[in-house]
Amino acid sequence: MNPLSTRRRRWLLAISALAIGIAEPHVEIAWKCRAGLEASEACVWGRAFLPLGKWLAPVFVAPIAFIGLLVCVACLDWVRARVRPAADRPR
Questions:
Q1: Global pTM?
Q2: How close are the terminal C-alpha atoms of the chain, in Å?
Q3: CA atoms within 13 A of residue 13's CA, in its CB half-sphere
């Protein structure tokens, strides 16, 4: 198995984090305005601030998502490095 190079992995994580940042305001509105809650205060304010959230969420959410994805990938790499030698040991 050929693992991704560090550069490719970082680009993939950056694109994923940007997608999370762009999708976050829409997912939040979908959650707050689900069936039965269309008139709730959270839904009304969420819709009012959606144009602002579309621009600010990628700026604030994407870097946090990128760091979170980096930590998750690093933990997965660490676990794989610890498990793989144990599987290669003779019995």
A1: 0.76
A2: 24
A3: 19
Q: Please identify which residue in the block is written with the tokens 């693992």.
A: 3
Model confidence pLDDT, tens digit, residues 33-58: 888 888 888 889 888 998 998 999 89
Using the CB atoms, write b or e for 9-34: b if 16+ within 10 Å. Answer: eeeebbeebbebbeebbeebbeebbe
Which residue is associated with the tokens 């994407």? 62
* Cα separation, 82 vs 88, whole angstroms: 11
pLDDT in tens, 62-76: 999 999 999 999 999
DSSP 4: P
